[in-house]
Design goal:
binds 2-oxoglutaric acid, Jelly Rolls, three-stranded antiparallel β-sheet
Length: 268
Amino acid sequence: MTPSIFTPDEISEALQFYNTNGYTAIKSTLSDDYLTEMRKIMIELVDEEKESLNLENYRDYGFLLCAPYYADKYPQILDVITNKEMLKFVEAILEKWFIVYLYSNNCIPPSGGNTKAYKPHIDTPRYIENYHQSVVAMITMDDYTEENGATWIMPASQNLKEKPTDEHFYNSATRLIVPKGSICFFDPKVWHAAGTNYSNDWRTYLLVVFCRPWMKQRVDIPRFMSHIDKRNLSKQQLQLLGFTSAPPANFKEFYGNESERTFTQPFV
Ligand SMILES: O=C(O)CCC(=O)C(=O)O
């Protein structure tokens, strides 16, 4: 079933759908050229990361641990995080000052390929009633089809605390059959799974997860970016990447003047 894809002007309808079903999709304003370029970069980095880790039993093929780590080589990687329409939707859920919890991707290799995300799962098993602590944004860099592994998602399963059986999951789940350039948002507590990619090309997306600024990021993005010259980054990019909400590690970082402090954004 093709989910409704809302336009960026239909944010309130998209939000209503999200609040009921735990997911929604909007058409992004990112250009086709940008997405095509990012797709090429991500596929290249997936292999580069695998080779540099050189781990036995590597289960994360297709996934980058921290995409901003590569912003020295490919600064355009950071352009997406300030996409206005995406941030508008996220702000409606997480309120002001949210940050990036994880910026990664999930690329499924061709010809029957899979990733560790192919089993039904949720991303964050933390339940606080009537409170959203994070939002997942999946930005598709390909048209998603049943053949290339479109994500399975079980509508309105965000409050289900028991793992559904595979039979229950696959009988009630829908496929995210969406075009390239869609931003699929989902509640990290909704049950979902990657499909298997039977096509002869990669199936790719950018994964940007946002969280409240008081939360620990999935990986410490500012430290991951310590080798990168940050002078060309905007204030907004630095804030989103967590540079203004890092726990102080010495007295100056807490009591010092504004430029020395590491937690400078307002508490919310
Ligand atoms: O790749 C997909 O379709 C789903 C990815 C996923 O399950 C995840 O990122 O948690």
